[in-house]
Design goal:
Active site: 240 (proton donor)
GO molecular function: S-methyl-5-thioribose-1-phosphate isomerase activity
Low-confidence stretches: none
CATH class of the largest domain: Alpha Beta
Radius of gyration: 20 Å
CATH topology of the largest domain: Rossmann fold
Number of strands: 16
Structural class: alpha/beta
Keywords: Amino-acid biosynthesis, Isomerase, Methionine biosynthesis
Mean pLDDT: 96
Function: Catalyzes the interconversion of methylthioribose-1-phosphate (MTR-1-P) into methylthioribulose-1-phosphate (MTRu-1-P).
Largest sheet: 7 strands, mixed
Shape: globular
Bound molecules: 5-S-methyl-1-O-phosphono-5-thio-D-ribulose
Enzyme class: isomerase
CATH superfamily of the largest domain: Translation initiation factor eif-2b, domain 2
Number of domains: 2
Distance between the termini: 21 Å
Length: 357
């Protein structure tokens, strides 16, 4: 399994190690988390971010919590573990992967009746590592499938950060770009800075430069003009939650990009693992949208830039209606329209082998 210097999270003994993404690219600091609350804080403050990485962090937090539960019997352990899981689930609301991972962690106790508490704690810990490793294999499969939508010499636009840092490693949208670049070094990536948290200029630009992938940074406002000038061949973004009809929540600003892409005849792809799909939501209208601190808008690196007392709203995500999406690149293939049927089939498909056919 690849292990890039930019992997965001790993176990070190009984501690969860988290690369603090708030400080990147200029400072590498690793947080040593030994309690559930340490990890929840890292998720809420976006020391770790990106839907799949948040899911992995949630799984590891569950394992940390399980280890410290004091319980005389399995029943008590399960009751306490359930409470730990619910606390972790609510750390960030929009990404589906966190709920998916917490469910997978709780399933360990459901699927192992008659097993004593120490063994359950061990199985829970092993499950968290398995979720991390599976995520990397999943992203590599997304990369292999995604290569087929990237023409030779493509000029790709991406948004926010859907790279190694946003996942266990390798990335989803950036996984496709990594795979395509390995086959065709002539491609070029434009990344948008992604106001207000700057995941594009701080993280995506950093990952692309580390991989020596030709890239250029633009302000978010410049994307439409580049498309209008025929300087972009396709857009690839990640996702936080995909409804059963293909409506996709992703970083605020994604919707605007998708509309611009359609207006300019540019294909618009979403790259995401199946754990991002929420089949219980018929469409995107009920996807919970995280509202973050207004200070992220009024301040820049802690310095007030708007007039003092200025009101601001800061929705962290938006929902792109499925009609603007050309295809959804998953680990089991590319889902095309009609998405409802394709998504159902993808969810039923067996996990990928290492060489998709
Ligand atoms: C593979 S990451 C997919 C998404 O989580 C990503 O595009 C995104 O919107 C991240 O938002 P963030 O607020 O940085 O967690």
């Amino acid at each position: 399994m690849p292990s890039s210097p930019l992997r965001p999270i790993w176990w070190d003994g009984d501690a969860v190690m988290i690369l603090d993404q708030r400080l990147l690219p200029h400072k590498h600091k690793v947080l040593r988390c030994t309690t559930v609350d340490d990890v929840i804080r890292a998720i809420k403050t976006m020391a770790i971010r990106g839907a799949p990485a948040v899911g992995i962090a949630g799984a590891m937090a569950a394992a940390l919590g399980a280890r410290t539960i004091m319980a005389a019997d399995v029943r008590t352990f399960v009751r306490k573990f359930s409470r730990v899981c619910e606390r972790i689930r609510s750390a960030r609301p929009t990404g589906n992967n966190l709920s998916w991972a917490v469910d997978a962690m709780f399933a360990v106790v459901v699927e192992n009746p008659g097993v004593d508490v120490p063994r359950l704690q061990q199985l829970i810990r092993e499950k968290s590592q398995a979720i991390l490793e599976e995520d990397v294999r999943t992203n590599e499969a997304i990369g292999r499938w995604g290569m087929e939508v990237v023409p030779r010499g493509a000029r790709i636009l991406t948004y926010c950060n859907a790279g190694a840092l946003a996942t266990g490693d390798y990335g989803t949208a950036l996984g496709v770009i990594r795979a395509a670049f390995a086959a065709d070094p002539s491609l070029h990536v434009t990344c948008c800075e992604t106001r207000p948290f700057l995941q594009g200029s701080r993280l995506t630009a950093y990952e692309l430069m580390a991989e020596k992938i030709p890239c250029t940074l633009i302000t978010d406002n410049a994307a439409g003009s580049l498309m209008q000038q025929k300087k972009i061949d396709l857009v690839i973004v990640g996702a936080d939650r995909i409804a059963a009809n293909g409506d996709t929540a992703n970083k605020i600003g994604t919707y605007a990009l998708a509309v611009l892409a359609q207006a300019n005849g540019v294909p618009f792809y979403v790259a995401a693992p199946r754990s991002t799909i929420d089949p219980l939501l018929p469409n995107g209208s009920q996807i919970p949208i995280e509202e973050r601190d207004a200070k992220e808008v009024t301040h820049f690196y802690g310095r007030l830039v708007a007039p003092r007392g200025m009101a601001a709203v800061n929705p962290a995500f938006d929902v792109t209606p499925h009609r603007y999406i050309t295809g959804i690149i998953t680990e089991v293939g590319i889902i095309r329209k009609p998405f409802t049927r394709g998504i159902r089939r993808a969810l039923e498909a067996p996990p990928p082998t290492s060489n998709p056919v």
